[in-house]
């Protein structure tokens, strides 16, 4: 135990992860949302130059690494959770924005209104492209605001840019994509079934020929 304590003092992030995990085990995973909001508020109150600011941001990043991914909540993307969210396992629409941009600030309400109407098979997420420059470059974002759709089962580089700029337009665009994805999935399943049947037929014919010999 003494060695563990020494290691925790030397590696502060490991100690922080330990504390956060204890909190989650004691209070449930939903406590993460409360802790994120609490820590954000504290960080804003102390200011960037305060010595307490950096430890608060470190704590915030750890909590966000555990943040549940749910379609009922808008997801704030960060370097800590982006690979968990955009991994090809779900449909995600991402708003890339710059908080300094007046158009982005106006479009935020459009995003919120679309979220209230969106199909729950699509996750909504947003990313501060000005703050996370590396992620902006990674996803080839050159303007703001930009909406990109990352479809389930597709490589990230195949993301589609959404041209719509109204809540209803965005939701209808998403629904059309879901219909198209379902159609393509059924076509693929039928193709695989037909190829499987053809392969079985060939194998059966080969077995019959061997028996005749």
From TrEMBL:
Species classification: Eukaryota, Sar, Stramenopiles, Bigyra, Opalozoa
Domain Thioredoxin per the UniProt entry, residue ranges: 76-174
Basic and acidic residues compositional bias, start-end: 187-204
TM helices/strands, residue ranges: none
Annotated region described as Disordered, given as residue ranges: 187-213
Gene3D superfamilies: Glutaredoxin
SUPFAM superfamilies: Thioredoxin-like (SSF52833)
GO biological process, one term: protein folding
GO molecular function terms attached to this record: protein disulfide isomerase activity
Protein name: Thioredoxin domain-containing protein
Pfam families: Thioredoxin
Any one GO cellular component localisation term in the record: endoplasmic reticulum
């Amino acid at each position: 135990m003494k060695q563990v304590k020494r290691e925790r003092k030397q590696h502060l992030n490991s100690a922080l992860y330990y504390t956060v995990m204890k909190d989650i085990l004691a209070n449930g995973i939903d406590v993460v949302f409360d802790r994120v909001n609490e820590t954000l508020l504290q960080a804003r109150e102390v200011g960037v130059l305060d010595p307490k600011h950096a430890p608060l941001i470190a704590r915030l990043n750890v909590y966000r690494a555990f943040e549940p991914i749910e379609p009922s909540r808008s997801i704030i993307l960060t370097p800590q959770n982006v690979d968990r969210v955009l991994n090809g396992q779900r449909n995600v629409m991402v708003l890339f924005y710059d908080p300094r941009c007046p158009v982005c600030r106006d479009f935020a309400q459009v995003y919120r209104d679309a979220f209230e109407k969106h199909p729950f098979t699509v996750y909504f997420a947003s990313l501060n492209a000005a703050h996370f420059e590396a992620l902006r470059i990674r996803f080839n974002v050159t303007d703001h605001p930009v909406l990109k759709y990352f479809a389930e089962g597709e490589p990230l580089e195949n993301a589609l840019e959404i041209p719509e700029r109204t809540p209803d337009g965005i939701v209808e665009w998403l629904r059309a994509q879901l219909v198209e994805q379902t159609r393509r999935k059924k076509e693929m399943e039928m193709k695989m079934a037909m190829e499987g049947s053809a392969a079985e037929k060939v194998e059966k014919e080969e077995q019959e020929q061997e028996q005749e010999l």
